[in-house]
Inverse folding.
């Protein structure tokens, strides 16, 4: 969605973004602790909340902030504020229901804002993002009610993949899909949403995996990135991020279909192929667009943008190989390098902002 002016100014948006990155840092440390790396954590229980911190505390806050900017209403910023504070509550060791309640309220604000935009723009891409927001709220409500992360993770994944798919579909207006392709996309939406909700009761995994694979193949075929990858500079970088992310989404869905369940070794492989390989490839690729729109900074392209992406892919391959070959040391090293890729991404982003600031002064 195109960001509109209005709502809160940059000095008020930046703290919300920082809250999201607090959850990112906490979630990464919690993930490393699960692998046995000696990282400092306020409590051992934090390691069990790696998923909520990453999905709800970080990604939910960033997406909520982007949606609030697009809506241009001050109340919409309550969404990222609540999810950001929910992540901080988890980090500080407050009772679990406090953080979960904040996530529920924040996702409810996001859904409200998304529905208002959908009523204003009655387009398929907005319906797709609205279904993603519905999935996130449903998953958060179930988590608040006591459901475990494995029971709601498909709904959380749907929030992310449908949000991303909706944003890519919006940009496809420059290369519109055919009416047949749109019909296929609608079928994929139905399959994904049905599979996501069925997974809560331990059913529908094959349906869900089929929906994820269908979406990956649809995006690989229809996304304008297939053409823009032939360009240069930032345009090519974004396209490489997108296409490699779609490949990881396909790999994760194939792993899910092969396993037939989200348990055991398949759980780690499927989740991280999608949530690291796919989602963070999208984050890396969209950051040069989203950050300037949200916090009004320049992010001039530099070839070093590729370094975090390469480390991300290589480390994920190492992690999944360790999981598949039952080599915990290799899997643990891959997890550590996953974290290194995120650190490189942050350093690359900060470096680009500094270059943009210096260029603006000259």
């Amino acid at each position: 969605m195109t960001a509109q002016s209005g709502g809160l100014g940059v000095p008020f948006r930046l703290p919300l973004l920082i809250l999201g990155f607090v959850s990112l840092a906490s979630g990464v440390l919690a993930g490393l602790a699960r692998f046995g790396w000696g990282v400092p954590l306020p409590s051992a229980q934090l390691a069990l909340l790696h998923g909520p911190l990453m999905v709800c505390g970080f990604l939910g806050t960033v997406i909520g902030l982007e949606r609030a900017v697009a809506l241009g209403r001050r109340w919409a910023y309550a969404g990222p504020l609540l999810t950001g504070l929910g992540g901080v509550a988890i980090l500080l060791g407050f009772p679990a229901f406090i953080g979960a309640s904040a996530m529920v309220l924040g996702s409810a604000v996001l859904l409200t804002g998304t529905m208002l935009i959908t009523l204003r723009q009655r387009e398929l891409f907005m319906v797709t993002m609205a279904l993603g927001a519905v999935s996130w709220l449903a998953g958060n409500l179930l988590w608040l009610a006591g459901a475990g992360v494995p029971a709601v993770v498909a709904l959380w994944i749907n929030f992310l993949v449908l949000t991303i798919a909706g944003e890519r579909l919006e940009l496809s207006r420059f290369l519109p899909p055919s009416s047949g392709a749109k019909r296929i996309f609608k079928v994929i939406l139905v399959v994904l949403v049905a599979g996501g909700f069925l997974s809560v009761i331990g059913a529908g995994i094959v349906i869900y995996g089929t929906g994820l694979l269908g979406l990956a193949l649809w995006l690989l075929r229809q996304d304008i990135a297939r053409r823009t990858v032939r360009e240069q500079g930032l345009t090519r970088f974004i396209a490489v991020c997108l296409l490699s992310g779609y490949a990881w989404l396909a790999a994760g869905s194939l792993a899910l279909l092969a396993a037939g369940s989200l348990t055991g070794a398949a759980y780690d492989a499927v989740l991280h192929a999608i949530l690291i390989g796919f989602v963070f490839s999208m984050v890396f690729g969209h950051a040069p667009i989203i950050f300037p729109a949200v916090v009004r900074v320049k992010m001039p392209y530099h070839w070093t943008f590729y370094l975090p992406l390469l480390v991300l892919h290589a480390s994920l391959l190492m992690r999944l190989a360790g999981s598949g070959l039952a080599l915990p040391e290799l899997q643990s090293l891959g997890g550590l390098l996953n974290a290194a890729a995120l650190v490189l991404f942050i350093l690359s982003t900060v470096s680009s902002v500094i270059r943009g600031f210096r260029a603006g002064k000259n």
